[in-house]
Write a structure and sequence with these properties.
A 3-stranded antiparallel sheet has the order 1-2-3. It is mostly helical. Strand 1 and strand 2 form a beta hairpin. The protein has a domain of about 100 residues: Cytochrome P450-Terp, domain 2 (Cytochrome p450-Terp, domain 2). Helices cover about 60% and strands about 5% of the residues. Helix 6 runs antiparallel to helix 16 and helix 9 runs antiparallel to helix 10. The structure holds acetyl coenzyme *A and oxaloacetate ion. The site of acetyl coenzyme *A has 17 residues, from loops. One of its GO terms (biological process) is carbohydrate metabolic process.
Length: about 375
């Protein structure tokens, strides 16, 4: 290890961005200058997507136009639906959504159009189509036929409709929609950086998004929302929670849903997601819902008290998604449905003033040596 190297690029600023600002000193986050909490509670995910892509809040007519455009892009080709119908039912849903996005790219004859308008078209197209890829795959693994999109429904309502054939209570939709806004964008996180690296080679937007999905899958990044729910299931009951956490820490286990590379004293998005999770628990009002709420409170308090490490967004999002009825392996694809907005905004920003991303490395392998012919080895 060398003192001159910033391993994992920790603390390194690699480019400018005007999309979001992560402020660890105040545990806050803005998208294009708007506080994420305000967007989550006072706007909806469609308005947030508009802000991320266009820079300002839409007027009423701009928003109406944008909603129409998103709805008009919904719907998968018969070819893609038949590919989804052939996916391995045991495959991880992140692998299947990665494959579906890649398939969408090869269906688009303008995939290489990287003009600002071309990128914007494809960004809206992916926002509109990824939910159906996830929902159709969810139903396929249950042996059920896909349910097509409903133009009368919002982005979040339509997703529940395509998964379950019904739209739940408004509080559940609101909780889901808030999670979409909170997950949408977070500066140079690993998956966004992966997308920017791919875009910087002037590859196409679908390739950059496909790579970003691969980066998001890992449990140190987006995959943590699934890992959190596995942890809650392992803990089992609220009365086990404190002891479970103290033992896990003693055993030096990594506790999923805690810690963050940038925030060191709390993730800006957690209070809003926790409030939404609690509001949903109160509406659902079952023993199971209260159990996961209480358990997560105890785990959070114990971790902060014992290690001073705070929960990240995946911690409240995991159990919230579970109580909405989603299977655990679907949680990270839900993140994809949201982060497609941030990724594509970053791809456009990267291409606007592109410079190939190619850092240097510190070689630590053997000194130069000669190749001994095979007969002499
Ligand atoms: C939406 C998102 O992607 S948010 C991130 C989701 N990921 C997770 O929740 C996975 C669990 N968390 C982690 O693995 C880490 O906190 C990361 C990957 C998010 C950040 O990692 P880094 O910035 O590299 O932090 P780093 O690993 O250096 O941690 C610093 C110290 O805190 C400890 N620590 C950090 N997170 C955790 C954790 N979740 N559980 C236990 N200890 C932890 C580390 O062991 C380390 O201790 P040490 O100094 O005694 O070695
Ligand atoms: O910023 C990060 O490193 C991870 C994160 O919270 C996100 O991508 O939302």
């Amino acid at each position: 290890m060398s003192d001159d190297i910033k391993y994992g690029l920790a603390g390194v600023v690699t480019d400018d961005t005007a999309i979001s600002k992560v402020m660890p000193e105040t545990n806050s986050l803005t998208y294009r200058g708007y506080a994420v909490q305000d967007l989550a509670t006072q706007a909806d995910f469609e308005e947030t997507a508009y802000v991320i892509w266009n820079g300002d809040l839409p007027s009423a007519s701009e928003l109406e136009e944008f909603r129409k455009r998103e709805k008009s892009e919904r719907g998968l080709s018969d070819d893609l639906l038949s590919v989804i119908a052939r996916y391995n039912r045991d495959a991880h849903p992140m692998d299947t959504v990665r494959t579906s996005v890649s398939f969408l790219g090869q269906e688009d004859p303008t995939a290489d159009d990287s003009s600002p308008e071309g990128l914007y078209d494809k960004s809206i197209r992916m926002m509109a189509k990824i939910p159906e890829m996830v929902a159709a795959d969810y139903r396929h693994r249950k042996g059920e036929k896909p349910i097509g999109p409903d133009e009368g429904l919002s982005f979040s309502e339509n997703f529940f409709h395509m998964c379950f054939g019904e739209v739940p209570a408004p509080e559940v939709i609101k909780c889901f929609d808030i999670s979409m806004t909170l997950y949408a964008e977070h500066s140079f996180n690993a998956s966004t950086f992966a997308a920017r690296v791919i875009a910087s080679t002037t590859s196409d937007i679908y390739s950059a998004v496909t790579g970003a999905i691969g980066a998001l899958k890992g449990p140190l990044h987006g995959g943590a929302n699934e890992a959190v729910m596995h942890m809650l299931k392992e803990v089992g009951e609220p009365e086990n929670a404190r002891e479970w956490m103290l033992t896990a820490l003693k055993e030096k286990r990594k506790i999923m849903g805690f810690g963050h590379r940038v925030y060191r004293s709390g993730d800006s998005r957690v209070p809003t997601m926790t409030d939404a999770f609690k509001a949903m628990v109160d509406i659902i009002d079952t023993d199971e819902a209260r159990k996961y709420w209480e358990m997560s409170r105890i785990l959070d308090d114990t971790m902060v008290e014992a290690k001073g490490i705070y929960p990240n967004l995946d911690f409240p999002a995991g159990p919230a998604y579970y109580l909405m009825g989603f299977d655990i392996p679907m949680f990270t694809p839900l993140f994809v449905m949201s982060r497609i907005t941030g990724w594509t905004a970053h791809i456009a920003e990267q291409l606007d003033e592109n410079k190939l991303i190619r850092p240097l490395s510190n070689y630590t392998g053997p000194d130069e040596r000669s190749v001994t012919p095979i007969g002499e080895r």
